Amino acid sequence: MTTPDPNPRETLRAAASLEDGMAALRTDIAALHQRSKRDRNWIIGLAVSLLLDVVLSVVVAVVAVEAAQATSLAEQNRQAQTSSCEAGNAARAVSVSLWTYVLDQVTKNPENQTPERAEQIEQFRRYISTAYAPRDCANPGK
């Protein structure tokens, strides 16, 4: 058997206080739950942002490497073009000296020289000097 409460008002006041405490605790738990959900969303957002930063950094690094290789290839191409130009100049110089030798041999014999023939040989020398002129290897496009 239970004994009757000697002070029912005190018990009711304690119960009301306990109920108020429980209501406050429920409010605090709801606020903590909401804050926890917001914090989880921030963490997910930061993780996605970090992942995108890493991916973007890798992409930038790959593009930088490709650009460096393209620059290297362009430099190699320029050097090959300069070498080819210089080799062409050397070949043209050989051709000029060959034609100069031939024309000098033709003009050695004064008996074969007529004014018309001398003019033709001079015109041919001018043609050779322009046709076999050396190219500017420093500025290959010009």
Describe what this molecule looks like in 3D.
83% of the residues lie in helices and 0% in strands. The protein has 142 residues and is an all-alpha fold. Helix 1 (8-108) packs antiparallel against helix 2 (115-131). It is rod-shaped, with a radius of gyration of 49 Å.
Poorly predicted ranges: none
Question: What structural class do you assign from the helix and strand content?
Answer: mainly alpha
- Multimerization state: single chain
For the termini, the CA-CA separation is 118 Å
| Percent of residues in β-strands | under 5%
Question: Roughly how many Å is the radius of gyration?
Answer: 49 Å
Reconstruct the topology from this structure:
Elements: H1 8-108, H2 115-131
Helix pairs in contact: 1-2
Descriptive tags:
142 residues; rod-shaped; mainly alpha
Would you kindly provide a brief summary of this structure?
The protein is mainly α.
